[in-house]
């Protein structure tokens, strides 16, 4: 019934209520992908070293001198109005907010914190730059912001043109990416690439065709894929489930530990697992709520709702524009102020008569 009501408005409006709800649903999915099961009210410090959405504060920490990351909740409650850099997710990280990196500034949410988080690791992303070109994203000096992909090992982000690959496969063709630098550093991974990456479809040759079919038995009894692909270079795009193919013998585990990539054996380490955790904890979506409400509206009410939505959208866009121009974070108080102004400017409700006297 709701779909039928929506169709009746399509000829009169370029934007239907279904369009609105679907757009909202996509925005929610994007948010869950970044935030996962993140808590926006409580600092994550007491959860220890975990994968989480992080932010670097330019206001509190001088970049390239002090690198630090704060959790989602602290970005709201401790760094409101500050210039923040969104880092997406980092593994095995404990919130730095309020520790020695921040001088005398304390965390508003969790007072009992150690001076440093010794297991935290920081890369150039905490300085606000990414890729081998060390540029910000979006890049103010570039007219064409190239798509960026995150390496699952170093967790830096790379422009597709800097992955040292002739062709980058489509998103649905692979599960994870390991950048060219990490593939050189951990070159044993090329042994697995022959069967567990998109390179098997690219025509890259190995030492011999038999290498793709046979495995090598090591002295400790475990099996290892054969010699690495001799012509293979650049980044590697891995197929779904590739991590489960990695050898689990004690000798290989020791090698992973020495190369600081033991996390590849952890099924909960992947970004996909992180995103799924966010989907499990989410409540009824705005799309689901909206479809229920939509089914209860008549034609006139739908028309009014669409008109009001478009009006709200345009006003909100203009209101937020000043924050974008001044590079300011939108606070909860700002949103409340906006809707308060909207309420005061609301037009009187017009009652449409349903009969004539």
Automatic annotation (TrEMBL):
Keywords on record: Coiled coil, Metal-binding, Zinc, Zinc-finger
Coiled-coil segments: 302-333
TM segment ranges: none
Listed InterPro entries: UBR7, UBR7-like_UBR-box, Znf_FYVE_PHD, Znf_RING/FYVE/PHD, Znf_UBR
Record keyword Coiled coil present: yes
Record domain UBR-type: where: 41-112
Keyword Zinc-finger: yes
SMART domains given in the database record: ZnF_UBR1
Pfam families named in the record: zf-UBR (PF02207)
UBR-type Zn finger ranges: 41-112
Gene Ontology molecular function, alphabetical: ubiquitin protein ligase activity; zinc ion binding
Gene3D superfamilies: Zinc/RING finger domain, C3HC4 (zinc finger) (3.30.40.10)
Record's GO cellular component terms: cytoplasm
PANTHER family: E3 UBIQUITIN-PROTEIN LIGASE UBR7, E3 UBIQUITIN-PROTEIN LIGASE UBR7-RELATED
Protein name per the record: UBR-type domain-containing protein
Organism whose genome encodes this protein: Odynerus spinipes
Lineage of producing organism: Eukaryota, Metazoa, Ecdysozoa, Arthropoda, Hexapoda
